[in-house]
Amino acid sequence: MGEVDPAFIQDTQHRPKLAVIEAEGIPLIDLSSANASNHVSQIADASKNWGFFQVINHGVPSESRRKIEGAARKFFALPLEEKRKVSRDEVNPLGYFDSELTKNVRDWKEVFDFVVSTPTVIPVSPDPDDKELKELTNQWPQYPPELREVCEEYAREMEKLAFKLLGLISLSLGLPENRFNLFFEESTNFIRLKHYPPCPIPHLALGVGRHKDGGALTILAQDDVGGLEVKRKTDGEWIRVKPTPDAYIINVGDIIQAWSNDTYESVEHRVTVNSERERFSIPFSFNPGQHVWVKPLEELTKGEKQNYRAYNWGKFFSARRRSNFKKLDVENLQISHFKVSE
Ligand code: OGA
Ligand code: NI
User: Fold this and answer.
1) Which of 1, 42, 212, 323 is 20 to 30 Å apart from 250, CA to CA?
2) Which residues surround ligand 2, an ion (CB under 5 A)?
């Protein structure tokens, strides 16, 4: 391990355990219409007790998924100098990147990011006084030539599923099905193709360090290698999520936690790596427009304390992005920083 960059080494308390606990009882929700009468209560239980769940019979054609997974493999197999032709940088956050940090430690991964809608508009900086906005533009590599088309097709499928889940979450909170839809006008959804190469120090490093997803929902496609771990709410143990073929993993994000005034909680998770097998995954982040101010919904807090002050999604997003790029001296931005004290 002589030549491994110390930037990858996790603090002792965050290193993966050698004895893996395989998940039991992680909710698996069958979204087929035959089961429709159970969807709302299953989503309510899963979101309350776990903060994440898996869905099957979700309506996303397996062909779309197979195509994007195939194209992602081809892209990451290119020589580094080829991938770096579409490198992201501080001006354009989209494209290829291999030096991302989570909580100031480098992740053992490489990614390719693209936005789902064009244009996607976000603030230039996290500074609240800086009102300047910018339009994000996707950078598509020359190889593999089909990448753009398969990504765009997959993105449309992800949006469909995301709105279906959003409607069910809304119903499960006792709200009208479309209660959240307005927030997703000019949404800032994005997709990451992720590659976790085999790692010579899997006991010291992580593919992605512990974190909570800052958006509304994440829809994750993971391959059959495994490595995703979630922090169980009951005892704080790290639990391995066993891959289910063709299923998607759904994470309740921080925004749903704030909207629901902590009825639903976004859950901490991380990705472990191994020394033998590379792993691929594709998260879709379902996010509101940058102009949206996130705060607990009035209907859910009548007569009760609102647990969060309103925060602007665009600024939050911008602050998080910066911390993934640069090592900071402070903890990165969390919704707990907007928590109203007792
Ligand atoms: C993420 C994430 C998990 C994975 O991108 O936020 O947690 O399996 N990904 O790649
Ligand atoms: Ni995540």
Assistant:
1) 323
2) 213
In a domain, 110, yes or no: yes
CATH number of domain containing 191 = 2.60.120.330
Strands 217-222 and 279-286: antiparallel
Any atom of ligand 1 within 6 Å of the Cβ of 187: no
CA distance 40 to 173: 9
- DSSP 8-state class, residue 10: P
Count CB neighbours of 336 within 10 A: 10
Residue of 192, 208, 277 to mutate, ligand 1, most atoms within 8 A of C-beta: 208
Asked, for residue 199, whether it belongs to a domain, the answer is yes
Tens digit of each residue's pLDDT (9 = 90 or more) over 184-219: 999 999 999 999 999 999 999 999 999 999 999 999
Per-residue confidence band for 329, with pLDDT thresholds at 50, 70 and 90: low
Alpha-helical (H) ranges within 103-146 are none
Strand partners, 120: 136
CA distances from 116 to 57, 125, 189 (A): 23, 21, 6
| 126: in domain | yes
User: What is the domain count for the chain?
Assistant: 1
Residue ranges of E strands in 152-274: 190-196, 208-211, 217-222, 228-231, 238-240, 248-252, 269-271
| Mean pLDDT on 79-104 | 91
Ligand 1, residue 269: give the atom nearest the CA: 7
Helix axes 147-172, 62-76, angle to 10 degrees: 130
Range of the domain at 296: 6-338
Task: Tell me the mean pLDDT in the region 124-130.
Answer: 90
**The pair of three-digit structure tokens given for residue 74, joined into one six-digit string:** 């081809």
156 alpha carbon, distance to own chain's centre: 17
Q: What are phi and psi of 15, to 5 degrees?
A: -70, 150
Q: Which amino acid, one-letter code, is at 111?
A: V
> Rounded to two decimals, what is the model's pTM?
0.95
User: pLDDT confidence of 17, banded at 50, 70, 90?
Assistant: confident
